[in-house]
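Worked problem 6 (solution included).
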Amino acid sequence: MTASLPVLPDIEADRDRWEIVSFAVEPGDVVIFHPKVLHGGAPTHPGTRRRTLTLRFFGEDAVYEPREGGAGPRVAGFHERMTAGQAFRHPSFLKLA
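Solution. The predicted structure is:
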């Protein structure tokens, strides 16, 4: 059974109700946060671009949990071959020594 994704509130409609944290960043800066933190960036305007690198680290005891909407790794065939509770491993995932 897959868990239902929570419905996000309309934060933009009532910004004063929420604790919104922002950072003045420059090219080359790094911002690190937990993946369960609701996050976003300012709009990207025509003629500009934003590059994002996402790194995910998980422990030896991590297991697969199917999620609605295809959340999780974007590795061809990964979700089709995995079952709930199976060790979260794939040849595409690097193992740090």
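Discussion: The first helix runs from residue 78 to 81.
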